[in-house]
Amino acid sequence: MGQDQTKQQIEKGLHLYQSNQTEKALRVWMRVLEKSADPAGRFRVLGCLITAHAEMGRYKDMLKFAVVQIDTARELEDPDFLTESYLNLARSNEKLCEFQKTISYCKTCLNMQGTTVSLQLNGQVSLSMGNAFLGLSIFQKALECFEKALRYAHNNDDKMLECRVCCSLGNFYTQIKDYEKALFFPCKAAELVNDYGKGWSLKYRAMSQYHMAVAYRKLGRLADAMDCCEESMKIALQHGDRPLQALCLLCFADIHRSRRDVQTAFPRYDSSMSIMTEIGNRLGLIQVLLGVTKCWMIQKELDKALESIEKAQELAEGLGNKLGLLKLHCLCEKIYRTKEQQRELRDHVVKFHECVEEMELYCGMCGESIGEKNNQLQALPCSHFFHLKCPQPTGPRGCPNCRRLSVKPGYV
After folding, report:
1. Domain 1-108 sits in which CATH superfamily?
2. Whose CB among 57, 264, 284, 355 lies 3.0–4.6 Å from 256's, allowing a Cys bridge?
3. What distance in Å separates the CA atoms of residue 364 and residue 382, rounded to the nearest whole number?
4. CATH 1.25.40.10 domain locations along the chain
């Protein structure tokens, strides 16, 4: 298969894919991969296969094609191709919740920069790195990466990237419980879709609606949450987007739990867990198990709640997801207080505070924990957080958290 024929077949596959004929598109692209003698065409078709498998939630296949793409990029000896292939490798590992590997590959991308095309990818690299740091609950570095990605998006007038970063920032602020910002950023993403997204994939609309649904639920606006989640789910079903379907089912279950309708919540958690397990989203599984635990607690089935916690704790420890561990210690504290088991209660109180200290999840001014309840937060240029209600640090001494870290043993 020559260069022109390769190009035609790739375009044919794209047309099929955009018409929701995914399996036919995959067959066309696989034939190109088998028969094409054009390395640049093979590189491009591998990019199509990586994107398609990502959206279907086939993350192991996504990783497999990313590895092949790296070899093709080396054959081409082009730094732009190599940077793009390392970014795809980073994204594949991000989807599989291999966050340390994601960060490592992102750093490789940034070290390889030089050409204009490579520099334009830096925003996407920063976004992927931010998502990985967020998965590890390293909030200061996650925010730094998201802000870099947002700057790249603005400098390059890249509205699609800006939309994706806004959704990640919505997720970020949901996790640290500033629900006003958690809603603001996906609403901004939805505005970008409405203003600029005529030719975009519907996944951008679905993504913004999902993150709005999560924020609305946290704010207690359950009817709004349900409306947004239903719209997101409709698009996810139309496009066979299994990862988003799993997230929407989780959100539906959380909404029903918020209404204390546990019998309706349980089957939705089960459906979400099934897809999360199928696609390998271990971070999502932790969220499902947290929801299931809270349902058992509502029903006062404390031993069953502890069984769910044990499964979630194993996952959180394996991923290095510190916020997940903090939430689990908090739930254990409530359970053992109810069971009047003082030794276990003290153990989880200590571990909870160790997690808070490790993640620096406290206000540098008043010393109270951040992320325990809904609070409006303000980030300094160093990305440490303070309650908006607290007096903001001023003067040359700067951030109290940074000063505290500078005098810790081992810091210079």
Report:
1. Tetratricopeptide repeat domain (1.25.40.10)
2. 264
3. 12
4. 1-108, 138-240
Q: What is the pLDDT of residues 33-52, one digit of tens each?
A: 888 888 888 899 999 999 99
Structure tokens at 355: 């997690």
Closest Cα partner for 320 from 174, 150, 132?
Answer: 132
Taking the C-alpha atoms of residue 61 and residue 44, their distance in angstroms, rounded to an integer, is 16
- Nearest by Cα to 290 from 319, 345, 253: 253
d(CA 333, CA 317): 18
Kindly report, residue by residue over 337-364, the tens digit of the pLDDT: 999 999 999 999 999 888 888 887 777 7
Find the angle CA(171)-CA(22)-CA(89) to the nearest 5 degrees.
50
Query: Cα–Cα distance between 279 and 274 in angstroms, integer?
Result: 9
- Cα 145-149-152 angle, rounded to 5 deg: 140
What residues contact 89, with CB distance under 8 A and at least 6 apart? 63, 66, 67, 69, 70, 105
Q: Tell me the pTM.
A: 0.89
